[in-house]
Write a structure and sequence with these properties.
Elements (H helix, E strand, L loop, with lengths): L2 E8 L2 E8 L5 E6 L12 H11 L4 E5 L17 H14 L5 E7 L1 H8 L7 E5 L13 H12 L2 H8 L5 H12 L7 H9 L7 E6 L3 H9 L7 E4 L9 H15 L3
Parallel strand pairs: 3-4, 3-5, 5-6, 6-7, 7-8
Antiparallel strand pairs: 1-2, 2-4
Helix pairs in contact: 3-7, 4-6
Length: 258
């Protein structure tokens, strides 16, 4: 295995990608979300790429337009279809043995893959898809209920409540919000669902159960969807060692055709 850095074009801009080489005919395309660099939060994508390549599968990750080392304007996740298509073409050119490519995106990168209809990939691993319509939207009831389940299991939190260190007014408002009915799916979630309606390849939704973005997704989606896989006690970027191992297993299963 070796790690190579290369450039490729996308609508007049030059983008930067990193290839971890391996011999398999199945490969992984990592799509970054938001303003995240191709290395990922806490170098999580770089570490995952190294792990997957060591198992025999090539991995390509890249900075989309306007992010990191790449040129151009960052139009956000809803405009990433050309970036993903250009990265996929560069990946196939750099690893010509490829016959199958799995796309993995976390947060709004997963949303971008869905809005792009799968972006020409053969399979999709969609982690904690972003379905929140606005930054000032309240936390979903499921997130608040999870918060209180964890607080009730924490002796220090119980002590704070019993000694009056928690505002009763704020607590009552938060409990009321936790008991409210979930809002109906918004336009974004509906557009994402439409985006992958015609996608013919395998799809997995990877859910970190301690992540509010994932909890909001479950509120907006059919939580009984058989394609959902849950990772208990994982946070958004899978920084926990057990969560990192779980994520790698999910990806390797898809690369092996599972």
């Amino acid at each position: 295995m070796s790690r190579l850095h290369l450039t490729f074009p996308c609508e007049g801009a030059t983008l930067i990608g990193t290839l971890d080489t391996a011999e398999s005919t199945s490969g992984l395309l990592l799509v970054s979300g938001g303003n995240e660099l191709r290395s990922g939060a806490w170098s999580g994508q770089a570490l995952l790429a190294e792990r997957i390549a060591a198992a025999g599968f090539p991995v390509f990750r890249f900075d989309p337009r306007g992010v990191g080392d790449s040129e151009g304007a960052n139009g956000g996740f809803a405009t990433r279809a050309p970036d993903i298509a250009a990265a996929l073409a560069a990946f196939r050119h750099a690893a010509p043995q490829l016959s199958r490519v799995v796309g993995l995106g976390n947060c709004d990168a997963a949303s971008g893959l869905m809005l792009a209809g799968g972006a020409g990939l053969d399979a999709l691993a969609l982690s904690n898809p972003w379905t929140i319509e606005s930054d000032d939207a309240p936390p979903p009831p499921e997130a608040l209920r999870d918060h209180y389940r964890r607080r009730l299991a924490d002796p220090a939190a119980i002590a704070r409540l019993l000694t009056g260190k928690v505002s009763p007014g704020r607590l009552l408002v938060s409990l009321r919000d936790a008991l409210r009915r979930p809002a109906p799916p918004g336009t974004l979630a509906q557009d994402m669902a439409k985006g992958i309606t015609g996608f013919a390849g395998p799809v997995r939704f990877l859910v970190a159960e301690r992540d509010r973005t994932a909890q909001a997704f479950l509120t907006a989606w059919d939580r009984n969807d058989p394609r959902i896989r849950r990772c208990p006690d994982a946070t958004h970027s899978y920084v926990e060692p057990a969560a990192q191992a779980w994520l790698a297993r999910q990806v390797l299963e898809m690369l092996r055709g599972g």
